[in-house]
Amino acid sequence: MDITFGHGQGAFPDAAAVRTRVFMEEQGFRNEFGPEDEAPDMLHIVLYGDGAPLGCARVFPAALEPALEDAPGRWVFGRLAVLPEARRGGLGSLLLAEAERLAREAGAAEMHLHAQCSAQPFYERAGYAAYGPVEFDEHVEHQWMRKAL
Prior knowledge:
The chain is an alpha+beta fold. It has helices at about 10-25, 90-105, 120-125; strands spanning about 5, 45-50, 50-60, 75-80, 110-115, 130-135, 140-149.
């Protein structure tokens, strides 16, 4: 399979389709999209396999995340989703690595993410450490995690 990436606001329609399928249809989230998705500093990333969107994520400066204190070099990763039929092949790790690379190029020194607790082992393997309380985002437990880049 030929793997390519698309990023920027132009990638948002494909990212939205993946997020709708994974977060809304599969996982039952209702509040998946917000005005931050259209912010100029929001970087949408889509992973394509043979030209078809298979996964997505987004990365942005912490100033766009009201739950975090803004600080120079602090960025946020989120909305990692891989379509069910494309899972277990390492695509999530490729998306995370691409997001970290793009954030570093934009000046990120640390990355934060609000992980579903069930996904924490995935992020721990990539070097993230949990901090703060476990919180509910809609009906799913989440916890903040961070990593120095």
